[in-house]
Amino acid sequence: MGISEKEPTVIATAATPDSRSESVLPFAETGQSSSEELDIQGDCIPDGGLLAWRQVLAGHLGSAVSSGLPATFGVFQLYYTSTFALPAAQISWIGSVQVFCSNCACVAGGRLTDAGYAREAILAGSTLVVIGLSLASIATQYWEVLLAQGLCTGLGLGLIWMPSMAVVSSYFKKRRALALALATAGTGTGSMAFPATVQYLVPYIGFAWAVRCLGLVILTMLILQSLLLKPRFAKPKTRGPIIEVGAFKELTFLYFTMGTFLFYWALYFGFFYVSQLLRNTPIP
């Protein structure tokens, strides 16, 4: 009988959410993906408990802001069209730039999360969102609103969304689908709360103060999210490309990306124009 060769045993120290110094080799040295890193320490994934479900609530709040606010632009579309006396197609560029910047900023937000800076990314995004809404409330020109609400706020939304979802995923394995569904359901929460805030306050305190109140509501939600959030990444990916080009070699992922790209072409038409359509359509 030949002598069987045993594979070398790898001993991994379980890292707590607050510690990174005891984790094993970084990504660049192990060559394993982020999902594989979590599977290595599968026994350490809570998959439930008060702390884990607290992250779901934090993700719900983050999703309410990052995905719910762009869906609110229909209210702004109606006001800007009448205020600036510009075509609706030109006004919609504000919301379009916001959505575009939000998706592009997810690249930076995801990379920062991989490197272990999820909380810092959300803090930076929260700052940009609040500053953008504050500047939009005092803007008097079209280009000012485009830069404030379109560019600044959009970049902040992208930095919030990706870390929020990544932290939720790191706490669950068997219940990951349920946890992510509850977290992303925050889109509906924001889509209901934010338009109502602006629409019902404008007749009483004016548009500028209504936007500032909206910013205060969003700031409160983001502060609560930061208090609830507790990232836990055993091995931060400190080195590597910003964009994993090799992932597009997998046909399933490539088709999913193409489908999502085409999906966004039609998604926001209703969000942007439904209020204006109802305003201009006579009721028999």
From TrEMBL:
GO cellular component: membrane
One example GO MF annotation: transmembrane transporter activity
Membrane topology, from the record: Multi-pass membrane protein
Major facilitator superfamily (MFS) profile domain boundaries: 52-284
TM regions (residue ranges): 121-140, 146-168, 180-201, 207-229, 253-274
Compartments, record wording: Membrane
Keywords, sorted A to Z: Membrane, Transmembrane, Transmembrane helix
Annotated spans, Disordered: 1-37
Domain of life assignment: Eukaryota
InterPro entries: MFS (IPR011701), MFS_dom (IPR020846), MFS_trans_sf (IPR036259), Proton-linked_MCT (IPR050327)
PANTHER family to which the protein is assigned, alphabetical: MFS-TYPE TRANSPORTER DBAD-RELATED, MONOCARBOXYLATE TRANSPORTER
Family per record: Belongs to the major facilitator superfamily. Monocarboxylate porter (TC 2.A.1.13) family.
Protein name, as recorded: Major facilitator superfamily (MFS) profile domain-containing protein
Source species of the chain: Monosporascus ibericus
